[in-house]
Amino acid sequence: MGVIPIVNENDTIAVSEIRFGDNDTLSAITGAMVQADYLFLMTDVDCLYDKNPRTNPDALPIEVVEDVSALEADVSSAGSSLGTGGMATKLVAARLATSAGVTTVIARSSNPGNIFNVVRYCQSLKQIQQGVDTSQPLTPATTDDDSLAKSTSSLELLAKPPLHTRFLPDPEPIRDRSFWLLYGLAAHGTIFIDEGAHRALTSKAGLLPVGIVDVEGHFAQQEAVRLVVVSATHHQRTASTGSVSNGVSLSGTPTPREVGRALVNYSAAEITRIKGLQSTQIEEVLGYADSEYVALRENVSLIKKVDRGNRPVTPGIDGRTERVEEGVGIRSP
């Protein structure tokens, strides 16, 4: 249509339900909603560094990031006077966007032409990857010296891209409603569940009251909550001490872990009364039963474990490895 929409956090009404906190986070959520190919986060430095380049001349650039949670970088920049976000918020935005399958790039804003050069480079990598028959399993016949030489030659013809940091998209991205449940809604409380309930959720079953250990916070029906897994022994130990309200401590072994978000069919007060019970007992306790499930499976989105170990690999320049995934290169020693 020839229209470029502009979405700006600074112009929104600052209420808890719609305020994202900064334009980086808002851009990541917007990019995920429209399933963008790329998200560019422009800043006053070329890329991420392992140390602050302003105070450490030996700081090394971080060119490609596969797992944001495992990243070791200096994010001490607090942001410009024109916005609330610094480098730390850009890492949060990168995590959100890549989980939705969006390639995310951090680049210098004073050189906007870098956007086209980076995209051109990534698209060239994608074309090289498509030039190799990846429908067949990797065998000596498909990885002979001639094939490797052709791939290396093609990579050498690519113009060196401007300095930037690329965050690789998740090969199995979270889309649409699942992304909205995880990142688009503010959590109003926490439901602690046992391992059995977690296994049921991973098997596409809904959340039943019998698998709920405890509740924290004040929330109503159809509001979002965190789902946190605790072990039965951990809950019994903390409940017996009586040292923590709601019988759950966030310390101990094993450590409780957040595994997802959910929209609930019952309020916090109602779930507190029916936790640990069979679904057939809900009406007896509450006097009504809106649903046998505390949360329907379609209203649950789980945080998945990232496994990036199976990407196709082709030879790189200068003896390095160039791994190509959705048009993005990975270079490693």
Low-confidence stretches: 78-85, 132-145, 240-253, 307-333
Mean pLDDT: 75
What is the chain-wise order of helices and strands?
A: HEEEEHEHHEHEHEEHEHHEEEE
> What proportion of the residues is helical, as a percent range?
25-40%
Task: Report on the biggest sheet.
Answer: 5 strands, mixed
Strand-pairing-aware structural class? alpha+beta
β content, as a range?
15-25%
Please compute the radius of gyration using only Cα atoms.
24 Å
Spatial ordering of strands, largest sheet:
8-7-9-10-11
How far do the termini sit from each other? 45 Å
**Annotation, overall tally of beta strands:** 14
Instruction: Determine the number of helices (DSSP H or I, runs of at least 4 residues).
Output: 9
How would the global form be characterised? elongated
What is the strand and helix layout of this fold?
Layout: H1 23-33, E1 38-43, E2 48-49, E3 61-62, E4 64-65, H2 87-99, E5 103-108, H3 114-130, H4 145-156, E6 165-167, H5 176-184, E7 189-193, H6 195-202, E8 212-217, E9 224-229, H7 232-241, E10 257-263, H8 268-274, H9 282-286, E11 300-302, E12 313-315, E13 321-325, E14 328-332
Parallel strand pairs: 1-5, 4-6, 7-9
Antiparallel strand pairs: 2-3, 5-6, 7-8, 9-10, 10-11, 12-13, 13-14
